[in-house]
Amino acid sequence: EDQVTQSPEALRLQEGESSSLNCSYTVSGLRGLFWYRQDPGKGPEFLFTLYSAGEEKEKERLKATLTKKESFLHITAPKPEDSATYLCAVQAGTSGTYKYIFGTGTRLKVLA
Amino acid sequence: IAGITQAPTSQILAAGRRMTLRCTQDMRHNAMYWYRQDLGLGLRLIHYSNTAGTTGKGEVPDGYSVSRANTDDFPLTLASAVPSQTSVYFCASSMGTVPDNEQFFGPGTRLTVL
Q: What pLDDT is stored for residue B100 in this prediction?
């Protein structure tokens, strides 16, 4: 069964305390892995797409990496404004049919 | 301002009533999606449309229907609402369905079925 699992469910960090969020997946025919940020009461906002193992992408204090079984979102020296829920999603399937599967997210709280 | 709009923002509905959630995008995106988001379950795909005139079923399509008469609009209809359809509904769009097409999400509709 296709599955996306994120850990931890929740994370509290002090400002400046770097950490990583995990997204592990079991899908057939991975076409892409996505990271989104969601603020309370709002829709998800796109951060990154990763296509193949070994790929990395960076944006400000965030860096996403991908292996054959999991992805990490590394947060370096976080600030309170990085507090949000971070969602991982995978697109999988073959030509003509596809699935878009979201994890349940990691709720990040960065304390000043 | 380019983006996705959803209406209503929130709604309380009696069970058995019919309800249509509206979604409009002005980015000329080909693909559109409807998700529901429930605590502990994450976002689940209800229906999608790869292009105007076509629709497809997602993970949880039962009790919902969609239409895609044009590029911009993608309404979601609950024919006879039930309490288990209480959720936050998000509409999204993307240029296409290939992996490098990020999805843009609307602000959501919070629906309560009593």
A: 57
What residue has token string 């709009």? B5
Please name the residue of chain A whose CA is at the shortest distance from the CA of residue B45: A100
- Amino acid letter, residue B64: Y
By a Cβ cutoff of 8 Å, what residues of chain A touch chain B?
31-32, 34, 41-46, 49, 51, 87, 89, 91, 98-105
The verdict on whether omega for the bond into residue A78 sits within 30 degrees of 0, i.e. cis, is: no
| A28 CB-contact burial (10 Å; exposed 0-12 / middle 13-18 / buried 19+) | exposed
Concatenating the DSSP letter of every residue in B13-79 gives E-TT--EEEEEEE-S--SEEEEEEEETTTEEEEEEEESSTT--EE-SS-TTEEE--SSSSB--EEES
**Cβ-based contacts of B100 with chain A (< 8 Å):** 32, 49, 51
Please answer yes or no on whether B41 and A104 come within 8 Å at the CB atom: yes
Closest partner CB to B105 (pick from A41, A43, A105): A43
Q: Is pLDDT above 90 for A96? A: no
In this structure, which amino acid lies at residue B21?
A: L
pLDDT on residue A30? 86
